[in-house]
Design a protein that fits this description.
It contains nine helices and nine strands. The protein is α/β, with parallel strands linked by helices and about 270 residues long. Strand 8, helix 6 and strand 9 (about 200-205) form a beta-alpha-beta unit.
């Protein structure tokens, strides 16, 4: 049984306590940069010119980015941070001075994306920027991975900029082992925590917005919604597809296969 804690708090105010806990992994989706907000416009359908579009939340500031950078430097294994494509250099500048080793940025191809600026093509991807603590590394994902291609969520029932559960299942499964602890300092509606619950990882979620924190607590404690069940089923199908090949003949490859298979079975059991 995993232990999931949701804190209504400002990450910037408790960053020292978070760092002192030495979580195994940081997995988070921070707010968009001010560049994205500045370029979010709508084109009036009645002939009116373009006007600023309110995204419903504030952009990330330097203080929060620095706090997340410090947390990334404190975890014992992986850090995975979502970024708009044009801002990954800001994340590298925040994280690497804290001591984490930059690995790479993997695109998340969203396939379906709301248009934030009506006068230009939308961006069809974000980046998942990856760092690791100095030393030996392992993960539990497919060796053929070149991009995350999980379809983004649409519809009025989703939380603002909520990431799909099947995408977060991949990140939690692949970058934190069973029994390890995860921290998400920008928890939103709690998708990281729900994935951790399903996969047997402990997690601490921090969210500054009171309504979002309450939503995360309810969602993690409740039975899976129909939408979340559907996303779990998609993830199991994806996992089973890449696990259907031969078991790797190296010790490291066989261990990765075994970890991935165990997680797939956990989610299958949760689906009943």
């Amino acid at each position: 049984m995993s232990d999931i804690i949701v804190l209504h708090a400002d990450t910037r105010a408790i960053v020292d306590q978070i760092c002192a806990a030495h979580f195994a992994a940081l997995i988070t989706d921070p707010p968009y940069s001010d560049r994205v907000h500045d370029r979010a416009i709508s084109i009036g359908s009645n002939g009116a010119g373009p006007h600023a579009r309110d995204l419903g939340f504030a952009p990330i500031d330097d203080g929060l980015r620095s706090a997340i950078g410090a947390i990334a430097g404190s975890v014992t294994r992986w850090s995975a941070v979502f970024s708009d494509i044009e801002s990954s250099h800001l994340w590298r500048a925040a994280v690497e001075p804290a001591g984490a080793e930059y690995i790479r940025a993997v695109p998340w191809v969203r396939w379906s994306q709301p248009q934030l600026s009506g006068d230009r093509p939308p961006s069809g991807a974000e980046l998942v920027c990856l760092w690791h603590a100095p030393g030996r590394k392992h993960w539990s994902g497919p060796g053929s991975l070149t991009a995350f291609d999980t379809r983004s969520l649409r519809g009025a029932d989703k939380y603002s900029c909520e990431k799909p559960l099947d995408l977060m299942l991949s990140l939690v499964s692949w970058f934190a082992d069973e029994g390890e602890s995860i921290v998400d300092p920008c928890a939103g509606s709690g998708t990281t925590g729900l994935a951790a619950r399903l996969l047997g990882r402990d997690a601490v979620l921090i969210e500054h917005d009171a309504e979002a924190a309450a939503l995360a607590q309810r969602r993690i404690a409740a039975p899976l919604s129909g939408r979340d069940r559907e996303r779990c089923a998609r993830w199991v199908e994806y996992q089973r597809a890449w696990l259907s090949g031969d078991v790797p003949d190296t010790e490291a490859g066989a261990a990765r296969y075994a970890r991935a298979l165990a997680d797939t079975v956990r989610v299958e059991r949760a689906l009943g």
